[in-house]
Amino acid sequence: MSPPSRDILSYGSVGAHATSDISAVIIPDPLTCAGVLARRSKAGPLSGGVAAATSSDLFKPKAAWKPKAKKWDHRLSEESKSRTASTLKEAARYLATPGMISLGGGLPSSDYFPFEYIDVKVPTVGKFSEAETAESGKVVRIGKHDVQTGKAAFDLAISLNYGQGTGSAQLLRWLTEHTEIVHDPPYRDWQCVASVGSTSSLDMLYRMFLKRGDYVISEDYTFATAVETASPLGCRMVGVKMDAEGLLPESLDELLMNWDEEARGARRPFLLYTVPSGQNPTGSTQGKKRREDIYKVSQKHDLIIIEDEPYYFLQMQPYMGRDAPAAPLPKTHAEFLSSLVPSLLRMDVDGRVVRLDSFSKVLAPGCRMGWITASEQICERMSRHNEVSVQNPSGFSQVIIHKLLDEEWGHSGYLDWLINLRMEYTQRRDVLLHACEEYLPSEIASWAPPAAGMFHWIKIAVEKHPEFLTRSVKSIEDELFLTAVSEKVLVSPGSWFLADKGVEHKELFFRATFAAAESAAMTEATKRFGVALRKVFKLD
Amino acid sequence: MSPPSRDILSYGSVGAHATSDISAVIIPDPLTCAGVLARRSKAGPLSGGVAAATSSDLFKPKAAWKPKAKKWDHRLSEESKSRTASTLKEAARYLATPGMISLGGGLPSSDYFPFEYIDVKVPTVGKFSEAETAESGKVVRIGKHDVQTGKAAFDLAISLNYGQGTGSAQLLRWLTEHTEIVHDPPYRDWQCVASVGSTSSLDMLYRMFLKRGDYVISEDYTFATAVETASPLGCRMVGVKMDAEGLLPESLDELLMNWDEEARGARRPFLLYTVPSGQNPTGSTQGKKRREDIYKVSQKHDLIIIEDEPYYFLQMQPYMGRDAPAAPLPKTHAEFLSSLVPSLLRMDVDGRVVRLDSFSKVLAPGCRMGWITASEQICERMSRHNEVSVQNPSGFSQVIIHKLLDEEWGHSGYLDWLINLRMEYTQRRDVLLHACEEYLPSEIASWAPPAAGMFHWIKIAVEKHPEFLTRSVKSIEDELFLTAVSEKVLVSPGSWFLADKGVEHKELFFRATFAAAESAAMTEATKRFGVALRKVFKLD
């Protein structure tokens, strides 16, 4: 897109480079970690008091040269369309009048929050391990009245009171900046909204778009919870064929071209749920070209894409084989970011992607905090729903994560943390792959080395089972699962992840994770699984 | 109810007293704070590892002499009925096998949770104010591996990992014990399930019971969010008349007796949403007799009662008037507990009450944590829904609140905290009432002193407005609201809280809160409201 001339950039020219035509728009350089400080100082003090109204728009450029998102009224459910703003939260605007005393709201006084301060011991940047933290970690303090006393931008008196459906201004600012640094969405009116985790967001998005009887499109094998969340809403998944790079765009196109509303008893689906990086359960990662093709098919059929990306930052180093030296780690943040496959959000000129980000796999699941990035319209609907359900993430989570990621590490330190995680997960994956190479019978077990995530997807040549002709794949899967259990190793049968359990599956897979167990235990477990495989397939 | 003989109490006889018939059941004394330790030691070590399955049943007596709850299949929505257990969470049972190594789940390793410990400075029991905490508060530490090292029952490695839809075993044990100490429900199979706050629980309960077009019964004036949560689901509230003690049972009965499905275009409602103590917005508190009568009418019409009780422990001292000495505070925990109006849960022989408890008004709203108490069937449905939406409260919230309420204060110290809050809120209420007596024109403003909660409900004799005959009540309300705003005081107009905004209201109320502002500001605000009233009603 070439920028329209004469447009005015109201956000200013922090880090901008002028074009040769002085009447043209000045397009600023993409935001980097280093540019955040200048932008913040230009934006002025954060308005982040108790239950302060906020929006991503306060923390990003107006970017008048970018197109606006499409409107999704034709896709919204009756439930979502009818949401209105909360009466009481609306009235909060009168509080801005100087001298106003409120007897209006029901916000309790922080006098009665029984916490004077919270100290958290966290790693310093670059020394991230438990051992290093014990030695050189830093204790950061969150006081009750740090904002009032000018010590910090966020405190317990604010974070532990009621908030807004967007999440706090402090958290939202960080989320918006991070999203711009990593994805820089190519349309103008994108926003972020904090969530209590991506499972909750998914539940809310289904309710935003679906009605009973609808289908959701997903990969053939998919995150079991995505299916189990849809099912009580009267909705089923329809799977799209996959290869080692995940969802096949031509199969997606074919499915939609040939959709027979009569035969299916359902309207043509328009909601695509996909996990592009380190997909659960298959561990597959869509390459750039694959994502572009999926996006094109989505445009052709006017789909909304739920891009669920818990493992985006668990993209690992290329797998080099058992005896090869490890690939060198990215040396700079720019190198790190460009090593990541671009997100669907980054190519989303229409505002049709709803991206789900989560801290569960990169900080801790117990944060119960994540965020969505989507068009203003979708974010507004989401935040209305938040107001009358989960409200916002725990104040403890918000203030602790803010203290760590914003005030302590900063964007730059967080990227260092993510590079460290990349290295850790690479090592874990390699341990598991080496064990598989050593202990699994290669005549029946095969796999592609996962490029991202936590999961290793092992294909078992079920047709080599001695009773293959007389038994179902499911019964052989059951036998293998239970034999593995009796050998004291737990692996997850592929059938647990079928998008549509009604469709008979003819292939046999098992999912193993390298996220949890220690190296020695992982190797031992793989050995046991090898024993189980040989027993069931009578290989010795 | 007399206990059946020959029944066996499997929970044991901690604190039990024998009846004269030795073959009869031994009914234990009700649980008290002092009895908790003995019960826990009898129950043995807590099974509270990462994502440990748990249930209230592990923490309460089997109580075979109590009746079982009714079944509610006929009330469950299609959505709720069709929920099934999560495939992956089911598989977790194999983890109990000694020596099992799991490559099955997707739980990340706590090695990568960037928190070594959290220190929290909290008040010591009896010295609860901010000033006292600064002086004599205690710093309590939550380590990452405190369970492994035997230092504590809960730690960061567990609380910050994934959990179960019930909440953690550590939190659930405390919630169950607290509920038994305070309410001792009279049926056998009650349970608790942790929530991310009562607003979220309400949203989930509506979805558990309602279908589009349904009505929910509530007080005539009700919590605006309860209406706004129902409305996008296609459900409306129908209000029941109130007096100074809240909802009138005979009006409830009348409403249901005369329900005309044809005229209403909706089936007879069966879900009653009520705030029995310190109702929002009216501040009214149902007395014991009132609650019994409401329960009886609910039995007659087979209602399910959502008992929303954020203000239960903000029941205050009796109001003694401006110059009378304060009533003496409860001297013992027993005296304190018996000073509280018994809950609907306490009289719930059928298991038809779903009680919502919250930490928002008694610790801090930002905990985003509460719990429901209901029959096993309802709790199981709720926890299934949690699994595919909010999952469980933030691990930070769970572990910090556990550290404070269980390991530091204990049940007994928490009751002391609540007694302290009672005193604080009594003082705040009295300041506001005194200011109202002094500054509001008694010829048009009247009220009943609230016995609980945060709200003061002021009736304005709208018929004394000079233009009453030619103007609507709503236009006079608007004028008064805006005049108050221009006098720089914010109070909430009664019409914001109408259960059914379609019904024209003929009375005029304003809601003021005494929870938030300091004494001097509250008095000044009341003075300003008095000025506004006099201006609008042309009294001077």
UniProtKB/TrEMBL annotation, chains A, B:
Keyword terms: Aminotransferase, Pyridoxal phosphate, Transferase
Domain Aminotransferase class I/classII large span(s) in chain numbering: 191-528
SUPFAM superfamilies assigned to the protein according to its UniProt record, in alphabetical order: PLP-dependent transferases
Record-level Gene Ontology MF annotations: transaminase activity
Domain of life: Eukaryota
Co-factor(s): pyridoxal 5'-phosphate
Similarity section: Belongs to the class-I pyridoxal-phosphate-dependent aminotransferase family.
Name of this protein: Aromatic/aminoadipate aminotransferase 1
Organism annotation: Discina gigas
Gene: ARO8
